[in-house]
Amino acid sequence: MASGSMKDCPLPPEQSLIMYDDDQRRDRRLPLAPLERRGYGYLLDFVVIWLFSSLAAGWVQLLIFIAGWFALRVILVSANQGQSLGGWAFDTRVVHLKMKRLPGILELSQREGILGAASYLPWWA
């Protein structure tokens, strides 16, 4: 009898064809930080940028807010292993879910551009 026959396989034939178990796939996912910690980290970043930009008025205030948001939420995150000031304070980090690595500058800019605009809109009125 050949050494590679199905009788030598420790699992039944129908289970030996399964490559991954559902539990193994779930264990490989990165854990998500609780919503409270993510919210407080965002709030800390927003308050810090708002305090600096509130020293000016009008369009200058908007420009300071945009520059501060980009610096704190994109440049600092890319230079600091995925953590902004709020992320560092509340122990959260930004990770690309599919690649399991830090997102690039372009992905961070798109993400934070949308979030920064949404953050500034209620304050603009």
Radius of gyration: 23 Å
Order of helices and strands: HHHHHH
Mean pLDDT: 77
Shape: globular
Proportion of residues in helical segments: 55-70%
Q: Could you give the count of β-strands?
A: 0
| Helix/strand structural class | mainly alpha
Supply the number of helical segments.
6
Give the CA-CA distance, first to last residue: 82 Å
In what range is the share of β-strand residues?
A: under 5%
The biggest sheet amounts to:
none
- Uncertain runs: 20-24
Please tell me about this protein's structure.
The chain is mainly α. It has 6 helices and no strands. The protein has helices at residues 13-16, 22-27, 35-53, 59-79, 85-89, 105-124. Helix 3 packs across helix 4 (59-79) and helix 4 (59-79) packs antiparallel against helix 6. It is globular. Mean pLDDT is 77; it is low at 20-24.
Describe the protein's topology.
Elements: H1 13-16, H2 22-27, H3 35-53, H4 59-79, H5 85-89, H6 105-124
How do you describe this structure in short?
This protein is an all-alpha fold and 125 residues long.
What key phrases describe this protein's structure?
125 residues; mainly alpha; globular
